[in-house]
């Protein structure tokens, strides 16, 4: 079966500025495929070319076998695109927006069923301007789905949402996928990519740095274990660095951080116990998608991207 989205050697310039140098990826039917990358990496330009909103300067794109430039009218019927905030008139109600958008499609979805599924039924008569950020976001997803698309493109799905609304949106997207919709998702959020995406393309400076599952990306930076603890009494580094399973030891004030093989934890706890040293606040860190992102792009996630209040993600600075 051909892939739902095929992007080969996409190239796009704005004047002299190369926004997308060379991007290739495929999205299989029923996948949630993420595009992750630092600011200005070329993510939005890439998906706008996929949507047919921008004309590539080079390369080839097929969406459901259609060329987004030449087959724009047909593709519009089968592709769902999320509106950006502020693209609806303030006075338009939720019900009016869905009915208007429904009229654009040959085989639209039932607006009532969509409002029920998206928790918007009670907001049927509410004007756009009076919706909360989360409700606007859900409406934009509803409008992306009103045409019964086979493929939906969602750009910055949960930007601006609080952590609970973000999690609710994720479960909604999983429901949408369960109905057979293929999803291309642009995101800044590591946790979103980790929780939602089957595979992720990391794009950096207009090129694909890697395409893999979040776990696959994380495993690329797996360098054994990183163990941190506060010793109950001082000890010489050599006590641990002489162990064959230990590859490094650093100290941050009274905190000891040891790196080593997968057996390092056993070796360290045994030798500490033999020397009557208690490892207080012992923690074993697993590499995260954020570690992989940093290793692949040399960039930390956009400021604030994963630091929304209440999220549990630790920043790299907090973790190292
Ligand atoms: N309409 C435009 N005209 C000129 N340059 C543009 C235009 N849109 C984007 N660019 C430039 O192209 C490059 C890629 O931008 P793009 O918006 O695709 O990146 P992005 O990865 O989506 O960034 P962000 O995460 O900040 O949204 C950037 O250098 C940007 O300044």
Automatic annotation (TrEMBL):
Q: Which GO terms describe its cellular component?
A: plasma membrane
**GO MF annotation terms:** ABC-type xenobiotic transporter activity; ATP binding; ATP hydrolysis activity
Domain ABC transporter stretches: 5-230
The record describes its membrane topology as: Peripheral membrane protein
Q: Where in the cell is it found?
A: Cell membrane
Output the Pfam families linked to this UniProt entry. Answer: ABC_tran (PF00005)
Q: What is its EC number?
A: 7.6.2.2
Which superkingdom is the protein from? Bacteria
Keyword terms of this UniProt record: Antibiotic resistance, ATP-binding, Cell membrane, Membrane, Nucleotide-binding, Translocase, Transport
Task: Extract the InterPro entries matched here.
Answer: AAA+_ATPase (IPR003593), ABC_transporter-like_ATP-bd (IPR003439), ABC_transporter-like_CS (IPR017871), ABC_transporter_ATP-binding (IPR050763), P-loop_NTPase (IPR027417)
Q: What is its main location?
A: membrane
Q: Which GO terms describe its biological process?
A: response to antibiotic
Task: Please give the family membership noted in the entry.
Answer: Belongs to the ABC transporter superfamily. Drug exporter-1 (DrugE1) (TC 3.A.1.105) family.
This protein is called ABC-type xenobiotic transporter
Record the organism.
Answer: Actinacidiphila reveromycinica
